[in-house]
Amino acid sequence: MSDYAIRRAAAADLDALGRLGAMLMHAHYSFDGQRFMRPGAHAQEGYASFLATQLEDPESLVLVAERNDSVVGYLYAAVEPRSWKELRDRAGFIHDILVDAPSRRFGIAAALLEEAIRWLRRQRVPRVILWTAAPNDQAQRLFARKGFRTTMHEMTLELQRLE
Fold first, then answer.
1. CA R_g for the chain
2. pLDDT tens sequence across 39-69
3. CB 67 within 8 Å of CB 3
4. Domains of the chain (ranges plus CATH)?
5. How far apart are CA 93 and CA 129, in angstroms?
6. pLDDT of residue 55
7. Which residues, 6+ apart, have CB-to-CB distance to 125 below 8 Å?
8. Cys staple from 92: which of 4, 65, 121, 128, with CB 3.0 to 4.6 Å?
């Protein structure tokens, strides 16, 4: 039996979601400070405010993982409409997944991912898409184990160099 629980996020989780979202922002910024936005002093509040708008959206899913009565991970997914811009039909999109460092290696990220895929199946989307930062090998291995395949490579050209 696992020592964690996966459930839908609630308004009472917003502080923890903001903290975890800010951690995600810091991780991405450390991967590539030119591509990803700088977290800034109010990243936690900003991210919590954004996720608050997603909690009641029927096309969105915000999950939390609890361990020892604390929120230690989260996942944000949504049903995205057909996109001519992205050349794809309606799809499920996993936007964020993060488990804090002390709670990794317990299967929590895999459990979050599996629960989101179950929810997306119930939404009758034909596929699930996600992006992962190029240096994030650990996440890419998890996604590959769960059956995801590489379909695109994002490439970035900086028009103004940060100095």
1. 16
2. 999 999 999 999 999 999 999 999 999 999 9
3. yes
4. 4-145 (3.40.630.30)
5. 5
6. 97
7. 79, 90, 91, 92
8. 128
